[in-house]
Amino acid sequence: MTAQRSPQTGNNLDPWYHHYAERAAGLRASEVRALFAVASRPEVVSLAGGMPFVAALPPDLVVSAMDRVMRQQGPVALQYGSGQGVPVLREQILEVMALEGIRAHADDVVVTTGSQHALELVSKLFLDPGDVVLSEGPSYVTAMVIFKSYQAEVDHVPMDEQGIIPEALRQHIKRLKNAGRTIKFLYTIPNFHNPAGVTLSWARRLEVLEIARTNDILVLEDNPYGLLYFDQPAPEAMRSVEEDGVVYLGTFSKTLAPGFRVGWALAPHAIREKLVLANEAAVLSPSSFSQLVISEYLATADWKGQINTFRGVYHERKNALLDALDEYLPDLTWTNPNGGFYVWVTLPEGLDSKAMLPRAVKELVAYTPGTAFFADGDGRRNMRLSFCYPTPENIRLGVRRLATVLRDELDL
Ligand code: PMP
To answer: Is ipTM beyond 0.95?
Structure first.
């Protein structure tokens, strides 16, 4: 039987509107999400999403790891596991993190359902309504959705070519403290930032850590792209210098494949214990099957070689994007990332990337408007272009189409 909701308790679109918890108010489809539907049509060149190019991973590598896991430890792979994650995998994760200068103990690693879920768990542990999360401006859109769902406010600290600006961070902290606000953590993406494409310099890493330490602010270091560098590795992780004040997040989504949904948090002991409890409460245990397949893959395949393959693919695509921008849109400015998936573009005065998007989609090219990456509506003159998924040829085609749209807008 379909229940009739009374008009006093619902609204026209959603009869349960007035019943949701307050935290659900922030859960609206992001601009990126709404875009995916349109941009996934085959005729559209999408420079919008952040999907890794998983076709560069030979399927046989995964099939053979799966096969061995099922033959050798099938009942374990199909069973619930530990809420902290498979111990062997946690040891192997230490080897992955060692590539970025991190020394740690496997006891302090908590495997999560992608690093997205680690963001959710950390937020659940720390955020009360009205708390403030500091983050770069712009910042990763789906992290902000989580922070807002815990009714925290995101305060954007400006960044430049070298990442978040320490002096601005100091000022923001001072202003917030003077206003009596509670700052719970600094959420930062130091390497090949999503969406800005820039990398926090080593000197600034140390300075930011020092500011966080003196102000008693936890640092949440989100590092999905660090190993996907082009010319030179990024500076070592912030967690490599500071153990007690940093929760570090990693993932296999970009160095292997996001379909496994396996990421991790490396946290100081006390936080780690709470993270395990929160993980158990949320999912009982992360997927045993995925973890064991990844563990087998790491033990038997040339995983570092595979990361090099990914780096090569993305480097070529970044070059294709920047060359095309140089050729077709020389009036714009953009960042030149040394890794990762994203270029952050600044449009000439007077243009609005959000308003322009429907026109672009009509011209069969999609991008993500800058406004998606700010909690406060900023970013109209920016757009994020992703070079991870389309082929170099399609990237060129996409930029050519974008140039047509921009020329029309500017009436050139
Ligand atoms: N953090 C950042 C900055 C990201 O770009 C992403 C994926 N787009 C994630 C976290 C989540 O990744 P996953 O859950 O697949 O590990």
So the answer is: yes
